[in-house]
Design a protein that fits this description.
With 119 residues, this protein is mainly alpha-helical. It is built from six helices and two strands, in the order αααββααα. The radius of gyration is 19 Å and the shape is elongated. The model has no long low-confidence stretch (mean pLDDT 94).
């Protein structure tokens, strides 16, 4: 599974939200920096070539849908980030967020409770 560009990822979020859509429907969901219709169509076809998107043909027009779930994508690339940036250590991930004040003591306690319940 290839990593997505920022624009491809933005388009995938739209497709995950809509579940299926024509190019014009995806275009309507883009709030800023709207690409030209043909550019967007090319991005979606690239997503299809990469295996992220499929389509149903209606004559000459295509309705696109995600082939991979948002959860599967998140899991795959979160694991890569942990491996590449945190020495494959979830402790290092949590420590990073704690040092950056991105996680509270209450949230850490919730995480500990989740872990303890699994035992």
């Amino acid at each position: 599974m290839q990593k997505l560009t920022n624009k491809e990822e933005e388009i995938m979020h739209i497709l995950w939200k809509l579940e299926k859509a024509f190019v014009k429907e995806v275009l309507a969901e883009i709030k800023t920096d709207k690409p030209h219709y043909n550019t967007l169509s090319t991005i979606i076809r690239n997503l299809e070539e990469k295996g992220y998107v499929g389509h149903t043909a209606y004559g000459k027009t295509h309705q696109y849908h995600p082939v991979i779930t948002k959860e599967a994508y998140r899991k795959r690339f979160f694991n890569i980030a942990i491996e590449n940036y945190f020495n494959n250590s979830y402790k290092n991930v949590v420590s990073f967020f704690a040092k950056e004040d991105k996680i509270s003591v209450e949230e850490l306690k919730e995480i500990i409770n989740i872990i303890e319940k699994k035992k």
